[in-house]
Queue: 3 jobs
Job 1
Amino acid sequence: MAANNFSQRFPQYLSKPFQILWFEVDELVIFLFTLTLALIYGKLMWIVFLAVQYFYTRTKRTKSRGFLKHVLYLLGFLKMKNYPEYFQREFHE
């Protein structure tokens, strides 16, 4: 008999994003990054930590899914596989 290769759990809802506590993955990355900076540098960075969390969460609620990934792509920090460069206006498939 063949072994069952489908041993991983499948999410109940495909549109439901992966969450840890109440954070989605992109929020968690920003949270941990700014928290680390606040713990290292202290004082003023705690205000920056709170401000970044507030404004990112507020902005994210008004934007579509994948907002952080597209912003990182726009800024040049992320390359998307099989996509043209962000500022390229004309391309041929």
Job 2
Amino acid sequence: MIVELTLADALHVIAHMRESDRAAMVAKFPGMSRERYAMERFTASDYRYALIARDGEPVAIGGAQFATRGVATLWLIATERLDRHPVELVRFARKFVRTLLAERLAHRLQGYVLSDFDICRHFAEAFGFRREATIPAWGANGEDIDIYGLVG
């Protein structure tokens, strides 16, 4: 089930996040603790949600952060258990994207992914996002970052 994100959900998912999400955290926020990163995700987002498994365990968290009027950066962090709950997340994410655009809350959606992780690229492309550019060595340890965008 999809619910509004709580700090407890953020702390749990970030404590158990996938390797690709951990690598992204380190690239963007080197030296930041997982607890502080959970706080950052919880407080900095304009919209935030959690996917909760039937047994009550948080599986994924995500949201949107508006950089400027009409431009939202989307984010997602998940545990390995996401593989068992893809349909619910995909349905919600598609509705979330459509709503942001249809309600004119945003005219541009964007996301940043590490170039080395195909799983992130595939997820962005599944929602119609297109790779716009690669920023070489943008990460703290020289990681290349791909920018994906969707204009509606």
Job 3
Amino acid sequence: MFEYGALAALSTQLEIYRWGDHYQQMREIHRANAEADLFNQQMIAAYNGVVQKFNNLLSDVERYDEEMKSLLFERDRKITELERELAEVRASKAESDQKVQNYARERIRRIMSGKE
């Protein structure tokens, strides 16, 4: 016949093994969760690093854009100034050329008339 004491001891031992397996599974799950958490933290840190680099790049592009606008504005201002100066020089040259032509005509007239 069965000995209930041995059966109870066997049942208790099996329950201890089941709880041991359960705790082992829980430790493995906990370890896997800890590894997943670490991986997630690393991914978040990497993502934040990429976002920071993007923001820095965007800031650099905006600063470069402002510098280029400033340089282009300055260039356009200088071109306008140079065009104005060129117009003044051309007007002055035309006036000078007119004076030289008038002088040359007068001189030729004086020479032809015998006054010189």
